[in-house]
Description:
Number of domains: 3
Order of helices and strands: EHEEHEHEHEHHEHEHEHEHHEHEEHEHH
Strand order of the largest sheet: 2-3-1-4-5-6
CATH superfamily of the largest domain: P-loop containing nucleotide triphosphate hydrolases
Helix content: 25-40%
CATH topology of the largest domain: Rossmann fold
CATH architecture of the largest domain: 3-Layer(aba) Sandwich
Amino acid sequence: MHKGKESKPHIGIYGRRNNGKSTLINKLAGHDIAIVSDIPGTTTDPVKKSFEITGFGPVVLIDTAGSDDSGMLGDKRTAKTIQTLKSVDLAILVIAQNIFDSPEKKLIAEFNRFDLPFIIVHNKSDLEKLNDKTRAEIKSYTGKDVLEFSSISDEYPEKIITAIRSAIPESTWKTPGLVGDLLGYGDIVLLITPIDVQAPAGRLILPQVQAIRDIIDNDCVAVVLKEKEVDGFLRKTGIIPDLAITDSQIFLKADASVPPGVPLTSFSIVLARFKGDFELYLKGTPRISDLRNGDRLLILESCTHHVSCDDIGRVKIPRWISNFTGKQLEFDVVGGLAELPRPVTEYAMAIQCGGCVITRRQLINRIRQAADAGVPVTNYGMAIAWVQGIYKRAIAPFITLEENTDNYL
């Protein structure tokens, strides 16, 4: 399954074969987007479907194979189903015919292992209602109530949508501000956006667009210009911006152009605080200075894209870190949310991109495996700022006066 291309909430549908998972998807979507069949095992592999749930909003829903699949192929399909738990923000467990046994309990154990919120739906209630015994057993085992569902009734989807809204973390579907907490009414924010071979033709990259929208939403002024225009703009207008955000790749140019009294950071570092584990990055970044000859570093790109000759993750960051440390280093680059090529314990450090195209949960699960193994983790922008000697200025906008910045140096 191709994963990690959309930042909308991800919802996974789990349960036995022929329990009506695809029927539930179609009902939530309001039209047929999943193949429905009476033949068990119609859905053989996890499939992503983007659509809008009326009354909730746009989501990515992952339809999975039956949890009771068997045989060699069945075991592989089940393993793929479990892998999806790293990518979803909410699980819906679909049961039917009052059957709640080992397959369901194994799934719930996996939900709990991934600290994943979930709801339970008893499907095909027009054929067999959920009885009091099953309801009580599930309540005792999970502490959760069970929702009834029938594809022939319009009553049930509303209850499920309400349950989704209640169970899924609000931060997943309500987008918080990127920099709004740093701004006051009418503040001017300078956005330095280079247009080079890596810039998408005819448009800005997603973090730049998100920053512009957040600045406007907070009744502030966004000034967008290329790095070559910064000096002339500031000189001609006399404007002193309240905040400057730059592309990390031109940190040194921005640092030289933006007056020292103006807070300066990068789009990648803004995303690091917005979507990543900022404290983890703060602790991990200084470890760049401790790298030794032969160390292997993991570069985590959350998207897959055409690789240019001077790609930021595959070329520039490895070059900058190697030059800074003066060490012979090895680098593995993993795009999307693909499996790692070697055990995470073999890496001296992991460097995560901003993650603009994936959900926060996907990003956190991505870096958590490194953090849990004791591998230092940093972020593209923070790593670049460190090796270019402007780390303290780059993180200063996000460090309160009460905190001791030296703890992160």
